[in-house]
Design brief:
Elements lengths: L1 H4 L14 H30 L10 H10 L8 H18 L6 H4 L8 E3 L8 E5 L6 E9 L10 E9 L9 E2 L3 E5 L2 E5 L2 E2 L12 E7 L3 E10 L5 E11 L1 H28 L8 H40 L3 E6 L10 H9 L2 H14 L3 E6 L15 E5 L2 E5 L3 E3 L6 E3 H15 L4 E3 L6 E3 L4 H4 L97 E2 L19
Parallel strand pairs: 9-12, 12-13, 13-19
Antiparallel strand pairs: 1-6, 2-3, 3-4, 5-8, 6-7, 9-10, 10-11, 11-20, 14-15, 14-16, 16-17, 18-19
Helix pairs in contact: 2-4, 6-7, 7-9
């Protein structure tokens, strides 16, 4: 409708008859494409107008200039600006000059091949649930009976049954979907709405802090804000480890790179000759590449779903009303070595955040992004820079996993300290929470020094117990003490199930622990094994997802000032 107000009309081919609803879908698709192109054109123009002297590293003054010239540049992630800068730098290397605009630096945008039924009304498409089975819905829409409909008689109503996933509540209101063709099948992107509790930006007293990692993908811990302004931790927190899943992603990535290199070589040898002997092999490689890409996509999606579900369950169990998540949208996988850069680029942080927002909104929990500045560097109790060591049992070996504070005596896992810093920063800065207009996400944009001074975790008072000091002999004297070891020989084992067990340990045929329960793959493993390097077993053998994703169950310690029943979620 905005395009119609602007006077941008849509014309159909001669001899083709379509109704106004089809024209609306075409205008909606064109409007989305033009809006995206306009944003890219403005951003590219800002980068070209403030082109830096060294494209690989801008100075602070150059960063301020490009952010002031770009639309919404003050809050634009730096990775977006760097990506557009690299695109222009590639054009400069190839042509020896700057491009005029974005249309010279990239190809013409292609509209997506899909039907946006949301732009239509009931005269073009309708959807309703099945009367008896809530797992099915019926979509009715008008489609042409021939490729070139000459009149409205060539359009007919078609009924399409749609299988609904179990995640859609039975009381949800279904909206017209978007239809697209994928792999020879029609897929429906279905939107639905249902009533959920309202989320709040401020007024939180119990919060969950989540920190990102590599082997420990997520580290979560809850904290409470008291009336006097102090913040105390609730329980010991938990971890979500996905080393095995990330290792499998690494294997799939290497396999994909090998296939791409081989396919590129075949393409160079065959050219455009379809009769070349290597053309058939190139087609086989293309099919293998597609299958590997699907596996990587499905694995990343499964990891995002599991990690988001775990984080929301931890918040529900702790009784938290908000999840404060470390904001790493501007972090780039560069400058840390080939292996570390690859591992960072394989993470699916964006998908996890999207899933987490969706799951948390269903239970009325807010998800707020918190600045990641110095969350792992400073002590969560006194804000003094920490010393990082390899492990608690190796205090003289430099490393990064174990943090020690020489000011207040605090020591703990690096990720545990970071999540405490995140939740304390979120609780003290919750008045600075804003909602982004683009996607409705809640975010704390900057750190205020006066509020940061109060973002410390106050240690809980030690638990008092009765004095268990030794005041007498441990073993009381007896008139006829029982022998500590059997002195009589064991009786003869009778033939049959009855009888006593022979002396010594009974032999049992207990199976070995699963591969994922290896002692070096435990959730709380901190020290690196000195005998052999940790290698997640079963990955190369295709052991499966759940044998390589380890999560701490949602069990939290109940303090005296907390509610007695916080609920539980598995």
């Amino acid at each position: 409708m905005a395009l119609r107000r602007l006077g941008w009309s849509v014309t159909t081919l001669d001899g083709i008859r379509v109704n106004d609803r089809i024209v609306r879908m075409a205008q909606e698709t064109a409007g989305r494409t033009l809006r995206s192109a306009k944003w890219r054109a403005d951003l590219t123009a800002a980068v070209l107008a403030t082109w830096p002297a060294d494209p690989s590293k801008r100075t602070p003054e150059e960063w301020d200039a490009v952010r002031s010239a770009a639309p919404g540049g003050q809050h634009l992630p730096s990775s977006v600006i760097k990506g557009r800068t690299r695109q222009v730098a590639v054009f400069v290397r190839e042509h020896g000059r700057l491009p005029v605009d974005v249309f010279e630096a990239e190809d013409v945008p292609r509209p997506a091949h899909m039907l946006l039924l949301s732009a239509c009304d009931g005269q073009q498409a309708t959807i309703e649930r099945h009367e008896s089975d809530p797992g099915w819905a019926l979509l009715r829409l008008q489609l042409p009976a021939r490729p070139d409909p000459q009149s409205y008689k060539d359009w007919t109503w078609v009924s399409c049954p749609i299988s609904l996933p179990p995640t859609i509540p039975a009381s949800a209101v279904l909206h017209l979907p978007t239809l697209r063709v994928t792999g020879g099948r029609v897929r429906a992107d279905l939107a639905y709405t249902h009533a959920v509790p309202r989320t709040a930006r401020t007024g939180h007293t119990v919060a969950l802090g989540v920190d990102w990692g590599l082997n420990t993908l997520l580290s979560a811990g809850a904290a409470r804000l008291h009336d006097d302004g102090t913040i105390t931790a609730l329980g010991a927190g938990g971890m979500f480890r996905a080393a095995g899943v990330l290792a499998k992603q690494h294997l799939l990535r290497r396999h994909s790179e090998l296939l791409h290199a081989k396919a590129h070589r075949y393409q160079r040898l065959t050219g455009s000759d379809t009769e070349h002997p290597l053309a058939a092999r190139h087609a086989v490689l293309a099919d293998q590449i597609r299958r590997i890409s699907d596996k990587r996509s499905n694995l990343g999606d499964a990891l995002a779903r599991a990690a988001a579900r775990w984080a929301v369950d931890q918040a529900i169990t702790a009784g938290a009303s908000v999840i404060y998540l470390e904001d790493l949208r501007s972090m780039e996988a560069r400058g840390m070595g080939r292996t570390m850069n690859t591992r960072l680029s394989q993470t699916v942080r964006g998908q996890i955040v999207d899933r987490m927002r969706h799951l948390a909104a269903e239970v009325g929990i807010s998800v707020v992004m918190v600045p990641a500045k110095n969350t792992s560097k400073h002590c969560p109790r006194c804000l003094v820079p920490l010393w990082h060591r390899k492990a608690p049992d190796r205090p003289t070996t430099p490393g990064w996993k174990w943090a020690v504070c020489r000011s207040c005596g605090y020591q703990g896992d690096r990720d545990q300290g970071a999540r405490n810093r995140i939740v304390a920063r979120g609780l003290t800065h919750q008045a600075k929470t804003v909602t982004e207009r683009a996607n409705g996400a809640m975010v704390i944009r900057s750190v205020v020094d006066t509020l940061e001074k109060a973002a410390v975790i106050t240690p809980s008072a030690p638990k008092t117990s009765r004095d268990r000091s030794k005041t007498g002999p441990t073993r009381h004297e007896a008139t006829s003490p029982a022998p500590r070891r059997r002195r009589a020989p064991s009786p003869t084992r009778p033939q049959g199930p009855a009888g006593k067990r022979p002396e010594g340990h009974a032999h049992t045929d207990r199976p070995r622990l699963p591969r994922a329960a290896h002692r070096h793959q435990d959730v709380t493993t901190t020290s690196t094994p000195t005998t052999s390097r940790h290698r997640p077993r079963g990955t190369a053998l295709g052991a499966g997802f759940h044998l390589h994703a380890h999560a701490t169950p949602p069990r939290w310690e109940i303090l005296s000032d907390t509610v007695s029943d916080t609920g539980s979620s598995s």
